[in-house]
Amino acid sequence: MFSAAVVAALAGADPLPGGARAQAKPAASPKNPSRLPIPRFVSLKSNRVNVRRGPSKSHRVTWVFSRKGLPVEIVAEFDNWRRIRDSEGEEGWVSQALLTGERTALIAPWLPKQRVRLYSSADTSAAAVAIMETGVLGRVSACDGDWCTFSTAGYRGWIQQDLLWGVYPGEKLKP
């Protein structure tokens, strides 16, 4: 015998309370094998990451990243390859094995040679934990849509989300 929810679904009605429908994860395809959202931010898993012109080892290496943890944005997928964009807007293909879901960010790389405060709480009137130079790399552990917790070089505090490259404006991340 079918449950009431299954009968409702078969009849085309909303089986969940309040008319909500269950959302199925999209099917994997060669253009989105991970079934994760595109675009999304990830970081580099290694201190040496070859960036290629196309999605295979037969494509030439166009440049090499040499800093583990740098945030990159995945803008496309093909099989085990990810087309990434860096903070300067450059794009290329890397093996997904060289990427990790750990969230990192750069402090305002678009504002060269400036300084930004890291606060003790999510408020510009809070005490400054540190004053960071733009371009500093750190780990992001949570964001509320306006502020993110950011840690680097032994410092941990809150930074305004719109000063980070590695999280989207308004994006919320749970710790």
Walk me through what this model shows.
By secondary structure, the protein is mostly beta strands. The protein has two domains: 40-102, SH3 type barrels (Roll); 106-173, SH3 Domains (SH3 type barrels, Roll). The protein is built from one helix and 15 strands; from the N terminus they run H-E-E-E-E-E-E-E-E-E-E-E-E-E-E-E. Strands 8, 11, 12, 13, 14 and 15 form a six-stranded antiparallel beta sheet that branches. Strand 9 (115-119) and strand 10 form a beta hairpin. The chain is elongated and about 50 Å long. The N and C termini lie far apart (42 Å).
Lay out the secondary structure.
Blueprint (H helix, E strand, L loop, with lengths): L3 H7 L29 E5 L4 E4 L8 E5 L5 E8 L2 E5 L5 E5 L3 E2 L3 E4 L7 E5 L8 E6 L3 E8 L2 E6 L2 E6 L3 E2 L6 E2 L2
Antiparallel strand pairs: 1-4, 1-7, 2-3, 4-5, 5-6, 8-11, 8-14, 9-10, 11-12, 11-15, 12-13
Distance between the termini: 42 Å
Tally of DSSP helical segments: 1
> Sheet bearing the most strands, described?
6 strands, antiparallel
CATH third-tier fold name of the largest domain: SH3 type barrels
Please tell me what the overall shape is. Answer: elongated
Instruction: Average the pLDDT over all residues and give the rounded result.
Output: 87
Question: Share of helix among residues?
Answer: under 10%
Secondary-structure element string: HEEEEEEEEEEEEEEE
